[in-house]
Design brief:
Blueprint (H helix, E strand, L loop, with lengths): L2 E6 L14 E8 L2 E10 L2 E2 L7 E7 L5 E3 L5 E3 L2 E6 L11 E17 L4 E2 L9 E17 L14 E5 L11 E8 L2 E2 L6 E3 L17 E5 L5 E11 L8 E11 L1
Parallel strand pairs: 1-17, 11-18
Antiparallel strand pairs: 1-11, 2-3, 3-4, 3-8, 5-6, 5-9, 7-8, 9-10, 9-11, 12-13, 13-14, 13-16, 15-17, 17-18
């Protein structure tokens, strides 16, 4: 079996500084099987990750057939900063390109007047500097046997990376165009991070163009990890002021 991986997950911000706590999915080839490794935070600086915070974990094949894996997430006994699945159940359509996607709810937090973080809402602690709900979105691409259509599938996350070309069809040295969507619309002039499984950012200063597209130089073998974040006004201001979203996309060549 041949496998290539594209995942993501993400680090971009409407706030002045890029934030570091995103979710990333890494499909891993294991003989004739594929498992999924999951991390929260920047490569080399991973935080504790909690299987109970996964809302969804879904695979879609080239035909759009969905399989849910959220019940298959398991902790690693000697590494609380990593979660894994067993071999993924890919269904009847085992060949071609797959899109994995996840939603991770990291909960509600406020920063009090001493800038101390408390895991609660304004309903319980109202005299604060900041308050938010933190949701992590992640996508990953991989293929079995050979790549097919489906690499550009939009899964509907509030913030989402969408490749505009097949990352497995391009040559070394090419640039992969990727579009950043926020609420389904292109996000122009926005900062994104391009790194890998060892560093969150390896190419400083990358921003989307007027169409919400940026280009990733395909300059090495291995994983590529894209990241961005976004902050939106809350629909429930009595509970928290901001929705804080992060997204990622990781691919492997």
């Amino acid at each position: 079996m041949m496998l290539r991986v594209s995942a993501a997950l993400l680090l971009l911000s409407a706030a002045p500084a890029v934030q570091a706590h995103d979710l990333a999915l890494y499909p891993i080839e294991d003989g004739e099987r594929v498992r999924l490794d999951m991390y929260y935070g920047d490569p080399g600086k991973y935080k504790l990750i909690d299987k109970m915070k996964f809302v969804t974990l879904t695979s879609q094949d080239q035909n759009g057939q969905k399989i849910q894996f959220v019940r298959d997430v398991e902790p690693v006994a000697n590494d609380p900063r990593k979660l894994v699945t067993g071999p993924l159940r890919l269904g009847d359509f085992s060949g071609g390109t797959y899109v994995l996607s996840a939603v991770y709810d990291n909960g509600f937090y406020v920063n009090d007047l001493e800038n101390h973080t408390v895991a609660t809402t304004l309903d319980w602690k109202s005299d604060v500097l900041d308050s938010g709900h933190y949701i992590k979105f992640a996508k990953a691409l991989f293929f079995v046997d050979r790549p097919t259509a489906g690499y550009d599938r939009v899964v509907g996350h509030r913030i989402e990376f969408v490749p505009q070309a097949d990352p497995y069809a391009l040559k070394d040295g090419d640039r992969l165009p990727v579009k950043l969507l926020v609420d389904g619309k292109p996000m122009p002039d926005y900062k994104v991070e391009v790194g890998d499984d060892t560093a969150a950012s390896k190419i400083p200063g990358i921003r989307t163009d007027a169409q919400g597209i940026f280009r990733v130089p395909l300059d090495h073998k291995g994983f590529y990890r894209l990241a961005a974040d976004y902050r939106a006004k809350s629909a429930y201001p009595k509970l928290f002021e901001w929705d804080n979203y992060t997204t990622s996309l990781v691919f492997r060549r």
